[in-house]
Design a protein that fits this description.
The structure is a single chain. This protein is about 0% helix and about 60% strand. Strand 4 and strand 5 form a beta hairpin. The termini are far apart. Strands 1, 2, 3, 4, 5, 6, 7 and 8 form an eight-stranded antiparallel sheet that branches. It has a single domain, classed as Jelly Rolls. It contains no helices and eight strands. By secondary structure, the chain is mainly β. InterPro entries: Cupin_2, RmlC-like_jellyroll, RmlC_Cupin_sf. Pfam families: Cupin_2. This is Cupin type-2 domain-containing protein.
């Protein structure tokens, strides 16, 4: 039996870039990488999908407002304000807002520059 996660497509999500810095001049070996900080707002009933991984894109998330449900390995975990989670190479997940109010997170990660 396969252990796959299935998530609806993204809906009700707004992503705002807050800051970014080119890491190449800052840290040897990081050419082509960027540290970015985004604010992600998920409306009630919204989904941040599809299922995605963080291989080669580590990060961390902090919840400012509302509750976000993180789906990993068939387990749904709710995170509220003041809490967050790491996203490392072992992370494969999708997110949703099951609540009645907007959920807002700050996401900081290292990505390849576009």
């Amino acid at each position: 039996m396969r252990n796959e996660q299935v998530a609806p497509e993204t809906k009700g999500v707004t992503v705002k870039l807050l800051a970014a810095i080119d890491l190449g001049p800052e840290i040897e070996g990081m050419a082509g990488r960027q540290l970015r900080m985004r604010m992600v707002t998920i409306e009630p009933g919204g989904v941040f999908g599809p299922v995605h991984n963080h291989i080669d894109r580590p990060g961390t998330v902090y919840i400012l407002h509302g509750v976000i449900t993180d789906h990993r390995n068939g387990v749904a975990t709710d995170y509220g304000p003041g809490v967050g989670w790491p996203e490392d190479r072992h992370t494969t997940h999708w997110l949703e807002n099951r609540g009645a109010i907007q959920a807002v997170e700050i996401s900081v990660d290292i990505v390849r520059q576009e």
